[in-house]
Design goal:
Elements: H1 2-15, H2 19-48, H3 59-69
């Protein structure tokens, strides 16, 4: 009896996929696809989008930098 019962369980388990493998596929595949899509978009953006413009530096910051360097600020 035990021999037949064990063989039946083994056959049933062999037919289905391993639950760990299913979880790995369900979590892993979207993650890999997400990373690949991000990389593709990054490469596309580097080639096709113009570089970002720098923000203009305020006069207050310019004065502060010149004072740090010891350069006399004009008008003072």
């Amino acid at each position: 009896m035990d021999g037949e019962d064990f063989a039946g369980k083994a056959a049933a388990e062999a037919k289905g996929l391993n639950p760990g493998l299913i979880v790995l596929l369900v979590v892993g595949l979207p993650l890999v696809m997400f990373l690949i899509a991000n990389y593709v978009l990054y490469v596309y953006a580097q080639k096709n989008l113009p570089p970002r413009k720098k923000k203009p530096v305020s006069k207050k910051k310019l004065k502060r930098e010149k004072l740090k360097q010891g350069v006399p600020v004009p008008g003072e």
